[in-house]
Amino acid sequence: MPMKTVSVAEARNRLTELLREVEQGAPVAISRRGRGVAVLIAEGDYERLRSAAGGADFSAWLANWRARAGTGFDGISPDELARWSLAE
């Protein structure tokens, strides 16, 4: 199932509702003018991603991942991202 995408304005107006969805395991992508700018994920999913980074500085790992990932990751789950990052 594809990840729900909302605009920045919609996210601002519906933040409480979107957070409830995220808490139930449904990440939400946020876009500005049609381009993805952020993804809301549950704290547990975020911690799994941090753990997947191992001992590396998470900010550096994330910057590296962003540079290499490019586009085409619509609908990827946090677990899929963690598996992909660990496979390297």
From TrEMBL:
It comes from the Bacteria. Pfam families: PhdYeFM_antitox. InterPro entries: Antitoxin_Phd/YefM (IPR006442), phD/YefM_antitoxin (IPR051405), YefM-like_sf (IPR036165). Antitoxin component of a type II toxin-antitoxin (TA) system. Belongs to the phD/YefM antitoxin family. NCBIfam families: phd_fam. This is Antitoxin.
